[in-house]
Amino acid sequence: MASLAMAQLGGAGWTTTIDFVHQQQYNTKSLHGIKRSHNEMRAVSPNSHSGAFQDIIPAQEVFKRQRLHAGGKNRIEASRICSVTSGPDILNNEQLSRQISASTPGPSQSPLLLLSHPRYSLPERLVSNFASLGINSIYPWQSSCLLGRGLLNGEKNLVYTAPTGGGKSLVADVLMLKRVIEDPTKKAILVLPYVALVQEKLKWLRKIVEGVEKKSVSFGSQTSTQLPAWRRPHNSSVRVVGFFGGSKARASWSDVDVAVCTIEKANALVNTAIEECTINDLGVVVLDELHMINDDHRGYLMELVASKLLSLERSVQIVGMSATLTNVEVLANWLDAKYYSTKYVPVPIEEYLVYDRSIYPVSTSNAFLKTASQLNSTQPFPVVSPSRMIQISEHNELKNPLTNAVVSLAVETAKAGYGALIFCSGRQGCQSTASLVSEAMPILAEVDEKMLDRRKDVISELRSLPVGLDDTLDKTVMKGVAFHHAGLTVEERDIVAEAYDKGVISVIVATCSLAAGINLPARRVILQGARMGRDLIGPAMLRQMRGRAGRKGKDEIGESYLCCQKADLEEVAQLLEADLPMVESSLTPEKRGIKRALLEVITVRLATHTGAIQEYVPKTLLYHTMDRVLLDTMVSKTLEELIEDGLVTVDSFGSYEATLLSQATVASCLTPEDGIFLHGELRRALRAFVMDGEMHIFYTFTPLYSSQTDINWPIFRREMENLDESGVRVLEFVGVNPGLVNRMANSAKPLPETTPSEIHAARIYRRFYAALQLRDLCNETPIHLVARKFEVPRGFVQTLAQICEGFAAGMIKFCDRMGWGMLKAALEHMIDRLKAGAKADLLDLAKIPFVKSRTARVFWENGYKGLRTIAEAEAKDLVPILLLAQPKKSRLDAGEEAKYHQKLLLKAEIIVGAANRLWERQQQVELEADI
Question: How many helices (H) and strands (E) would you count in the chain?
Answer without folding.
Answer: 38, 24
